[in-house]
Design a protein that fits this description.
Layout lengths: L5 H28 L8 H8 L9 E2 L6 H10 L7 H16 L4 E2 H16 L5 H20 L6 H21 L4 H20 L3 H14 L2 H13 L9 H12 L7 H11 L4 H13 L3 H11 L9 E2 L2 E2 H20 L5 H14 L5 H14 L19 H16 L10 H26 L6 E3 L7 E3 H15 L14 H13 L11
Parallel strand pairs: 1-2
Antiparallel strand pairs: 3-4, 5-6
Helix pairs in contact: 1-6, 3-4, 3-5, 4-5, 5-6, 5-7, 6-7, 7-8, 8-9, 9-10, 9-11, 10-11, 11-12, 11-13, 13-14, 13-15, 14-15, 15-16, 16-17, 17-18, 18-19, 18-20, 19-20, 20-21
């Protein structure tokens, strides 16, 4: 065994000092290369440093043994209906591959990042914490890949794209807040880094969305054109994703060539429910009703691919709702009464078969039923306005529904008939709804709040006033009066506004024979 001299010990200390300094310099480089203003990964990076043999500076490429199976499970996993236990097992394998060695392997961090990202998207999982963990793994993988230059450009691009996707998912947890805006801005930078490393159509599409939200319309237009031109590279998640982004950018104010983007959207996913619905709604809002009808009907075809749920939007319900609106608008333009049977059918399709719970969809179904009038084969208990809630507007609609029902029951012919009893029940229900709505309005912070029901009713109206007038209709015109609690001498302005409102819906008399 040799003797270690003092000079030898000094030499060893100097070498160690230089090694530590070099390692510290590498970590400083890593910190500088990938930073997010919105997500702090300093604690993650410190934890990653602590258990390692830091004399080994190399960031390794290639997959460690045993990682292929885990990566395959992660890549195939569907967060909507996948088996979370399988994903957790794969994540454990990814974590083992990441930890059980003395080198920093890029693909191990990517494996953990992808698995954690998909876990965050699975129902019932802790989204925000998992997304932050996923981001820090993507971020670390990007820094490791940067050490290898061109030889790791694909991994580097994947890691930066993962950073962007994770930041957008964090943004979507609280849209509209300053924190969400910071996530979005960092995501745009992450997608830019991914494009610089290795451009593809999906990365251009994703950055276009962020640029659009930032208000950079021209740049978003350039990116979505690049995505369209590169769509054959196989990187795009789905055709509808491209189509929906094309529609979003195409309908932005002052966007150059918006009509061309709409044309591309129609081509990108010609059989998609969501793409055709979004395109039809955009045409509808632009006043191009012929193209709107063609796209909306394409979305409503039984053979259309049902990808109707995109984020928080139920596109099938929106397509049917806008087909109902289109019938009303076309009738108005042509100066003819709307086909309220058709309106009711579309609105019923939106709320029934498509399962929408949106208030405006259920409101239109209720109003279409009221405007259509009572039919001989209708059942009195078929209350199409029953599920609207207890707001003043909802109670107004319920009262209107029962007034319409009363009009068609005609109790005057025979003293005691089932129709007469149903009439009494309808008037009682209408009275209850108007009273309840009026009480709710008076208890609200703004008792004289106004509402807009377009195109069902052309003007803005004071909800409490028309509730008040609804009670006066029953008190003045309907037989078998009940206690309406109507104040004496109804205000003239309320009377005029209320008469116009109820006349629009043919509800200013209790008997349909006298309308």
């Amino acid at each position: 065994m040799g003797v270690v001299t003092r000079s030898g010990r000094l030499t060893s200390c100097v070498i160690a000092a230089f090694a530590i300094a070099a390692i510290g310099g590498w970590w400083a480089d890593v910190e500088a290369q990938t930073q997010s203003a919105a997500v702090d990964c300093s604690a993650f990076r410190q934890a990653e440093r602590a258990p390692r043999n830091l004399t080994q500076r190399n960031a390794a490429l290639g997959r460690p043994a045993g990682l292929n199976t885990a990566l395959s499970i992660v890549e195939r996993f569907n967060p909507i209906n996948g088996d979370v236990s399988q994903l957790r097992a794969a994540l454990a394998d990814c974590q083992a591959a990441r930890s059980n060695r003395s080198v920093y392997n890029v693909e191990s961090y990517l494996c953990v990042a992808e698995a954690t990202f998909k876990l965050a998207q699975s129902p019932g999982q802790p989204a925000e914490a998992s997304l932050r963990d996923a981001y820090c793994n993507f971020d670390f993988a990007a820094a490791l890949a940067d050490r290898h230059g061109a030889s790791a450009r694909t991994l580097r691009a994947t890691a930066h794209e993962g950073r962007g996707n994770t930041l957008i998912a964090l943004h979507n947890l609280s849209p509209g807040t300053s924190t969400a805006n910071a996530y979005r801005d960092d995501a745009v930078q992450a997608y830019s880094a991914a494009i610089s490393a290795e451009a593809n159509a999906e990365r251009y599409r994703a950055r276009a969305v962020g640029l659009l939200e930032q208000g950079h319309i021209a740049q978003a237009r350039n990116d979505i054109a690049a995505a369209w031109n590169g769509r054959g590279d196989g990187s795009l998640t789905t055709g509808p994703d491209l189509a929906l982004t094309l529609v979003r950018i195409g309908r932005a104010p002052n966007v150059p060539g918006g009509a061309e983007l709409f044309g591309w959207a129609a081509e990108a996913a010609p059989n998609s429910v969501s793409a055709n619905a979004a395109l039809g709604i955009a045409y509808f809002n632009a006043g191009d009703f012929d193209r709107a009808r063609a796209a909306l009907e394409a979305a409503n075809r039984p053979t259309a691919v049902d990808d109707s749920q995109q984020g928080s939007t139920n596109y099938l319900a929106e397509a049917r709702y806008h087909l109902a609106l289109l019938e009303i608008e076309n009738a108005r333009r042509l100066g003819r009464p709307a086909n309220w049977n058709a309106v009711f059918s579309y609105a019923d399709g939106a709320t029934g078969r498509a399962g929408s719970s949106a208030f405006e969809h259920r409101r239109l179904r209720c109003i279409a039923y009221i405007r259509r009038g009572w039919a001989a084969n209708d059942q009195p208990q078929a209350d199409y306005c029953a599920s609207l809630g207890g707001s003043p507007e909802a109670e107004l609609l319920r009262g209107m529904y029962y007034l319409r029902l009363a009009q068609y029951l005609n109790p005057r012919t025979v003293a005691t008939t089932p129709a007469r009893q149903r009439y009494i029940e309808a008037i009682t229900q209408a009275t209850t709804a108007f009273n309840r709505g009026n009480d709710a309005a008076l208890r609200s912070p703004n008792p004289d709040a106004t509402a807009t029901w377009r195109p069902e009713y052309a003007d803005t109206f004071n909800v409490r006033h028309v509730l008040e007038y609804g009670r006066s209709v029953i008190a003045a015109d309907c037989p078998l009066p009940v206690d309406m609690r109507i104040p004496r001498g109804i205000d003239r302005a309320i009377e005029q506004a209320g008469y116009a409102f109820y006349e629009n819906f043919d509800l200013f008399k209790c008997d349909a024979r006298y309308l």
